[in-house]
TrEMBL record:
SMART domains: KISc. Gene3D superfamilies: Kinesin motor domain (3.40.850.10). Residues 120-150 are annotated as: Disordered. InterPro entries: Kinesin-like_fam, Kinesin_motor_CS, Kinesin_motor_dom, Kinesin_motor_dom_sf, P-loop_NTPase. It comes from Letharia lupina. Residues 1-104 form the Kinesin motor domain. One of its GO terms (molecular function) is microtubule binding. The keyword 4Fe-4S does not apply. Belongs to the TRAFAC class myosin-kinesin ATPase superfamily. Kinesin family. One of its GO terms (biological process) is microtubule-based movement. Keywords: ATP-binding, Coiled coil, Motor protein, Nucleotide-binding. This is Kinesin motor domain-containing protein. Pfam families: Kinesin.
């Protein structure tokens, strides 16, 4: 395996998510009721439909499945629905969950680690490039085109936010300066009135 240029690795997660049955139908109580509440919260935390961000901290389940929910993975979701009208609300809830989960975008890449010989072969040109001082030839992380576009878009958003915050800060500093001047003026007027 070390003779090859790289070592590929991967993981397989098989997860059975419990159903989101109504508590009234199941008759759950005590610890079972608390577990059902946590399961339903975890299932609803996946994607609230308001944003593309997945709130991983909202539940243990989303934290455990972080790589599968928008990370570096390929994810297959199978949902089971009941044809019975008795379970129509649960079926509708399950279908809504499936639609929200389908909207999550993953960016799967091959997990490859270079072996020692390959790294040693790449290290020498990197050193010579860095010694030349040419910034354009500095080794960097290779990004896919869509990743690079997303990175640049996000960088522009952050730069716009910084510029907006700097403008707000400047306005706030000016308002503070004016308020301090007005306060000083009022203090001086009050001191003059008391002196008279």
């Amino acid at each position: 395996m070390l003779r090859q240029a790289q070592l590929k690795s991967g993981q397989l997660f098989l997860v059975d998510l419990a159903g989101s049955e109504k508590v009234g139908k199941t008759g759950a109580s005590g610890q079972t009721l608390e577990e059902a509440k946590k399961i339903n919260k975890s299932l609803s935390a996946g994607n609230d439909g308001k944003s593309t961000h997945i709130p991983y901290r909202d539940s243990k389940l989303t934290r455990i499945l972080q790589e599968s929910l928008g990370g570096n993975s390929r994810t297959t979701l199978i949902i089971n629905c009941s044809p019975s009208s008795y379970n129509d609300q649960e079926t509708l809830s399950t279908l809504r969950f499936g639609v929200r989960a389908k909207a999550i975008k993953n960016k799967a890449k091959i997990n490859a680690e270079l072996n020692c010989k390959k790294l040693a072969g790449q290290e020498t040109p990197s050193r010579s490039e860095s010694r030349t001082g040419d910034r354009a030839s500095t080794p960097s992380i290779v990004l896919e085109k869509d990743e690079r576009e997303e990175f640049l878009r996000r960088e522009n958003e952050l730069q716009d936010q910084v510029a907006e915050k700097e403008s707000q800060l400047s306005t706030a500093e000016q308002a503070l300066k004016e308020a301090k001047g007005e306060l000083q003026f009022l203090k001086e007027n009050k001191a003059l009135e008391q002196a008279e």
